[in-house]
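Sequence, please.
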C-alpha cells in the first residue's frame, strides 16, 4: 500500500477561496480523524477535528465525503477551516481568530490520525499524555493568503497624510473601483477584508476612525467624529491615479461604523454605494460634527456595563433595543437622511441572532424608510441564526470573545449557519460593489 498523502489544491489559496482537500493511501473502509490547527500572532491556537471513513480505495475527498463525527458533520469541503474553535492550549478561553498581519499567510496544519477522535477536548487529552504523535499518519501545511500576489500595500498616518489607513491596490493595470472599508468598535486599522477585496479587483482603503495617534483614543461617551476627516479620505481616494472615482466610491461599514457610512452618504459628495453590516440606521453613537453642523450622541454609557465582573459574558443587544426603540426617530439627532439619497445604492445585511446590536430592528427600519422615500436601488439580506461578525467566508464563527482584562462579549449565531451566511453575504457584497462601481460590469441573469 502506498504511503498516505494529503493533497490540497491549490496549495496556496486566498482566504476566501475554497480549497480541494483529498487524502490517499489509507487503509480501506476505516475511520480516520482529520485535525486542523493554526496559531495567531498573539499566541492563541484554534483547531478542529473531523472523523471520515475511507472508501474501498483508501481515499477521502472532502468535497464528496461526509464527516461522521467531530467538530462538524456532513459534506463540508472547508469545514476544517470554518469549524475551528479556540484550543485548550490557550491561556484564556474565548479567543478570537483574527490575523492582523495580512502580508503573511495564515498557516494551517492538517494531519491525519489513525484513531477516532470526537472533540478537540478529547484530542487535547491525548496530547497531554504525549500519545498524539504515535497516531499521526501524515501532516501537511496549508497557506491561506490575504493578499494576492502582486497586490500593493501602502500605509498612511494622520501626522503625515491627515488620515490613518492602509490602501490595498490590486495587481494588474488600473484604474480600479475604489472602496473604503471600516471595522466596528475595534481600535485602529483592521486590514484583512480590504486585502481580500483587492484580490477581487477593488482598490480598498482599510480606514481607522479612532484608537490611533491623531484621532480619539477610545469610545468613551460623549464621542464626536468630524465628517471632514472622512471627506478628506473620499477626496484622496477619488484623486488617486489607480482608482476610477468618476462615479464615486463605495463604503463598507460594520457595526458602529455603519453610522459613519450612512452619515457619509447623507452629507458627503462622491459616495456611490454603501454596504451596512449588522449596524444602525439611526444616529445613536457617536455624535457627528461637520462644518457648522453638530449632531450630539445619545447617552450610551450604560453599554460599558460599569461594575461588571471580569469573565462575565455580556450582550449589548437588549440595552440598545431599549435605547433605539424608545427614541424619537424623527429627532434631528437620531434620524439619518440616507433614504432620500436616490443617487446612492445601499446594501443592508443583518444577522437575525445578533447579540451585539439590534440589527433586525434597524434593517426593518431602513426598509420602511427606503420604501416610503421610493428609493430606486437598495437590497436587504436577512440571515436567520446568524450573529454579529459577518466576515469573509471560511473564517471561523466567534460566538463569544474576550481580550485580556476585559469582560467577554456575546456575538450570537450558530456556527454552521453563520458560516454559510458568510459565504453568501460575501459573494453578494462583491457583486453589489461591481454593479455600482464598475461601468462595464454585467450582472448575471
Amino acid at each position: 500500500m502506498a504511503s498516505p498523502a494529503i493533497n490540497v489544491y491549490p496549495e496556496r489559496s486566498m482566504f476566501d477561496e475554497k480549497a480541494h482537500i483529498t487524502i490517499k493511501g489509507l487503509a480501506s473502509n476505516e475511520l480516520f480523524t482529520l485535525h486542523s490547527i493554526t496559531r495567531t500572532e498573539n499566541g492563541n491556537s484554534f483547531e478542529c477535528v473531523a472523523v471520515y471513513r475511507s472508501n474501498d480505495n483508501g481515499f477521502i475527498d472532502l468535497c464528496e465525503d461526509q464527516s461522521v463525527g467531530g467538530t462538524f458533520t456532513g459534506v463540508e469541503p472547508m469545514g476544517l477551516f470554518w469549524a475551528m474553535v479556540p484550543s485548550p492550549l490557550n491561556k484564556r478561553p474565548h479567543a478570537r481568530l483574527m490575523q492582523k498581519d495580512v502580508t503573511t499567510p495564515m498557516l494551517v496544519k492538517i494531519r491525519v490520525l489513525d484513531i477516532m477522535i470526537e472533540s478537540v477536548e478529547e484530542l487535547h487529552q491525548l496530547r497531554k499524555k504525549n500519545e498524539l504523535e504515535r497516531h499521526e499518519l501524515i501532516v501537511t501545511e496549508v497557506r491561506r493568503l490575504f493578499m494576492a500576489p502582486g497586490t500593493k500595500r501602502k500605509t498612511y498616518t494622520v501626522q503625515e497624510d491627515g488620515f490613518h489607513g492602509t490602501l490595498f491596490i490590486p495587481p494588474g493595470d488600473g484604474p480600479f473601483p475604489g472602496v473604503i472599508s471600516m471595522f466596528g468598535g475595534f481600535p485602529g486599522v483592521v486590514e484583512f477584508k480590504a486585502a481580500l477585496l483587492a484580490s477581487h479587483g477593488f482598490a480598498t482603503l482599510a480606514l481607522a476612525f479612532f484608537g490611533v495617534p491623531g484621532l480619539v483614543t477610545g469610545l468613551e461617551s460623549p464621542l464626536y467624529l468630524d465628517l471632514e476627516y472622512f471627506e478628506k479620505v473620499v477626496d484622496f481616494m477619488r484623486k488617486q491615479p489607480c482608482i476610477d472615482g468618476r462615479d464615486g466610491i463605495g463604503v463598507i461599514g460594520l457595526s458602529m461604523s455603519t453610522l459613519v457610512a450612512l452619515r457619509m452618504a447623507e452629507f458627503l459628495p462622491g459616495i456611490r454605494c454603501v454596504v451596512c453590516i449588522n449596524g444602525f440606521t439611526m444616529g445613536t453613537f457617536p455624535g457627528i460634527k461637520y462644518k457648522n453642523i453638530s449632531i450630539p450622541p445619545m447617552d450610551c454609557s450604560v453599554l460599558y456595563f460599569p461594575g461588571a465582573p471580569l469573565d462575565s459574558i455580556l450582550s449589548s443587544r437588549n440595552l440598545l433595543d431599549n435605547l433605539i426603540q424608545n427614541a424619537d426617530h424623527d429627532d434631528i439627532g437620531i434620524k439619518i437622511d440616507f433614504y432620500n439619497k436616490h443617487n446612492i445604492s445601499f446594501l443592508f445585511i443583518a444577522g437575525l441572532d445578533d447579540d451585539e446590536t439590534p440589527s433586525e430592528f434597524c434593517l426593518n427600519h431602513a426598509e420602511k424608510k427606503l420604501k416610503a422615500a421610493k428609493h430606486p436601488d437598495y437590497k436587504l439580506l436577512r440571515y436567520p441564526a446568524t450573529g454579529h461578525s459577518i466576515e469573509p467566508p471560511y473564517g471561523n464563527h466567534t460566538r463569544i470573545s474576550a481580550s485580556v482584562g476585559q469582560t467577554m462579549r456575546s456575538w450570537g449565531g450558530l456556527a454552521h449557519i453563520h458560516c454559510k451566511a458568510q459565504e453568501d453575504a460575501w459573494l453578494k457584497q462583491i457583486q453589489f460593489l461591481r454593479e455600482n462601481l464598475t461601468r462595464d460590469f454585467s450582472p448575471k441573469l
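Residues 265 and 424 are 25 Å apart (CA to CA).
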